[in-house]
Specification:
By secondary structure, this protein is of the alpha/beta class. The protein has two domains: 208 residues, Rossmann fold (3-Layer(aba) Sandwich); 180 residues, no CATH class. It is 47% helix and 13% strand. It has 17 helices and 15 strands. The strands form four sheets. A seven-stranded mixed sheet has the order 1-3-4-2-5-6-7, with helices on both faces. It is elongated. The protein starts with a strand and ends with a helix. The N terminus is likely disordered.
Length: 468
């Protein structure tokens, strides 16, 4: 969908958008968020990070739609304004845009305003301007001068309010100031706290200002909406696959107690759960095009791909709002026995032989391993329900964080508490059904086509989007 720095595309046939603004307002951040990529450009706290115009192309169904141009920051708007005023005084017959063209083409190399000339040059070559504003900054004279200069280009301008989270009062003041420039078609687009609806509104506003590109932009909007939905569903299904994988897993365990053997069984079970969660973490980050440095659990960063707050760590139950008495201090156990049913009877040691006698071939084929294990004096051990709850709640919160994280965000995601998240309705019944179908642990045509499995998957996926 995205092509960065293309060299052979005919830019004249595409919509050309210049991203402009003062230094360090988040221009590169905006493009990163629109590209869904952390790789475009360089983002630093220091001023003037972008020194040259950089291009990226956004496509819909592999068809290029628009070019984005990341421009250097306007650092000395006062000197630029004064210089242009002098040019206008000398060339009174020229239109304002022609004066800007004269400035951009005649500026000398190594001139103090060379960087500003790069910006003006790209502005004049573009169809529309996105003027990025850091609302945390007060409306100073430099911004007034920048807007005065940019409006002389005779290009449509959309002011984009960045870093708006928690700054509603400042945002209101900016709106008042821009109204004085007759700029009312503004947009709130936080590049840190991402909202797909904000991105959609951006393209819709562009549509209203460049009618000739309306159709191609609508195709882009529809394509992005479809892809975003697919992205979120993929994340939810990956979490569902984790729950299924762990719920269906079991270890055989001798009925006669043996501390060493029991410890080995527990270790194998714990390691399986840990590895399953690690793989889910990696896959979720890959789906949303993030990396491990973007995530922190309990305010401790992920290190070498490992969740630092272990799922079996003491106190984790309280962190996830699960109050199970004394177990909360110990952490999840992942050591519950499985209550399997055959013909309505429990497969306990006392009833196993009776179940064998009354079971048909189809029943034996399904529960044969359980029946044979019981007869031999063994039982199955699986992840307990509390462990599965923590897995589900932790991944649900992570999914929500990733869905609302801009690709320009520098802070690590904090997945420290999930006590506000909810489990699906009939959670225990869903888990019980999974435990009774160990063959569902791995994807297969038979599993995926099973109506009961499809119903369980749908309920788990839908619950993951609750309040997302």
């Amino acid at each position: 969908m995205t092509i960065r720095n293309p060299h052979r595309l005919n830019s004249h046939s595409l919509l050309n958008i210049a991203v402009v603004g003062h230094t360090n307002t988040g221009k590169t951040s905006l493009i990163r968020t629109m590209l869904r990529s952390t790789e475009f450009g360089v983002i630093e706290d220091a001023a003037g990070t972008t020194r040259h115009v950089e291009q990226a192309t956004i496509s819909a169904d592999n068809e290029p739609v628009l070019n984005l141009y990341d421009t250097p920051g306007l650092e000395d708007s006062r000197a630029l304004f004064a210089h242009i005023k002098k040019l206008q005084a000398k060339s009174r017959l020229l239109l304002p845009a022609q004066v800007l063209e004269q400035f951009a083409t005649r500026i000398a190399i190594n001139d103090p305003l060379e960087q500003e000339a790069k910006v003006i040059r790209q502005v004049l070559r573009s169809d529309i301007l996105l003027y990025v504003i850091d609302v945390r900054e007060p409306f100073l004279e430099k911004y007034r001068l920048e807007l005065d200069i940019l409006t002389q280009s005779a290009k449509p301008i959309i002011p984009v309010f960045n870093f708006i989270a928690g700054h509603q009062a400042e945002l209101a003041k900016w709106r008042q100031h821009l109204a004085a420039f007759n700029m009312h078609a503004t947009l709130e687009f936080d590049t840190v706290v991402f909202s797909f609806e904000a991105e959609k509104r951006l393209y819709q506003k562009i549509q209203t200002l460049v009618e000739s590109h309306y159709t191609s932009l609508q195709k882009l909007i529809d394509c992005r909406a479809k892809l975003w939905h697919q992205l979120c569903v993929s994340g939810a299904k990956r979490i569902t696959e984790l729950i299924v994988n762990v719920a269906c897993y079991r270890e055989s365990k001798a009925i006669h107690k043996n501390l060493i053997t029991d410890s080995l069984v527990e270790d194998r079970l714990h390691n399986f759960v840990r590895k399953a969660e690690q793989k889910c973490l990696h896959d979720l980050l890959a789906i949303f095009n993030f990396s491990e440095k973007d995530v922190a659990i309990q305010k401790i960063p992920v290190s070498n791909g490992q969740w630092q707050l272990d799922i079996f760590a003491p106190g984790i139950l309280k962190a996830y709002g699960l109050d199970v008495g004394s177990a909360a201090a110990k952490g999840a156990a992942a050591g519950a026995g499985i209550d399997l049913m055959v013909g309505g009877m429990s497969l306990g040691a006392a009833s196993a032989l009776g179940a064998l006698a009354g079971a048909g071939w189809s029943t034996f084929k399904r529960y044969g391993d359980e029946i044979k294990a019981t007869v031999k004096g063994a039982k199955w051990q699986c992840a307990d329900e509390v462990t599965l709850q923590i897995l589900y709640l932790r991944q649900k919160l992570l999914l929500k964080k990733l869905m609302h994280r801009g690709h320009a965000a520098q802070e690590t995601v904090q997945v420290d508490k999930a006590d506000s998240e909810k489990l699906p309705d009939n959670w225990s019944k869903l888990i019980s059904a999974l435990r009774q179908n160990p063959a569902w642990q791995e994807p297969s045509i038979i599993r995926n086509g099973n109506p009961q499995y499809q119903e369980i998957e749908t309920k788990l996926v839908e619950s993951l989007f609750d309040e997302s």
